[in-house]
């Protein structure tokens, strides 16, 4: 009688949803569902752009950073199965911020416009400037230009792609007022002080002249009163002498 042999059959089936290319708008929701049927305990692993993930991906609020190539791999007893999907996230451009700062030499101003959007948004400015730096990472575009504003300006950045556009304005101050001529402020202050001193001296001279005039008029008036009193006293003495002579003759 022949001995019976035990035959072990291993099997593995894998089902993944979604698969292929998946297009979502930013802030959408994506449900990932994986089902596997195996002859034993199966090992499940996930990768994104060839980087291992700790758990099954979930997308309750899709962001630009979620875009990538996802692979689900299941293995059991020497059998491997894998399925994948490519997540593409798109959205209208949104300018997050605009900033300005002086260049290292202090002769220019560097303007920065940061915008998010997929496909990559093109960035335009309301002024002409020299391109300083451009980058685009995970749906975020950074655009820098250098300008030399000769007056206070309101500069606009416009980000555009096939889904729409967005703009933001920034008030940029002039570089001219920041450049001061050495010594000019001190010269102006000295001139103002000298002019003030001249006004004070002239005022004192005029005041002294008025005081002198009033004093002279007072002296003249006093002298006239003394002369009149002297004349009256002299007349009275002569009349007294004549009266005495008349009395003696009698």
UniProtKB/TrEMBL annotation:
Membrane-spanning ranges: 194-218
Region (Disordered): 229-250
Name of the protein in its database record: Ig-like domain-containing protein
UniProt superkingdom: Eukaryota
Entry-linked PANTHER family: CD166 ANTIGEN HOMOLOG A, NEPHRIN
GO molecular function, one term: cell adhesion molecule binding
Organism name: Oncorhynchus mykiss (Rainbow trout)
Keywords of this entry: Disulfide bond, Glycoprotein, Immunoglobulin domain, Membrane, Transmembrane, Transmembrane helix
Location within or outside the cell: Membrane
Keyword set includes Glycoprotein: yes
Domain Ig-like stretches: 5-86, 93-173
Pfam families (UniProt xref): Ig_3
Topology within the bilayer: Single-pass type I membrane protein
A cellular component annotation (GO) from this entry: cell-cell junction
UniProt keyword Glycoprotein present: yes
GO biological process, one term: cell-cell adhesion
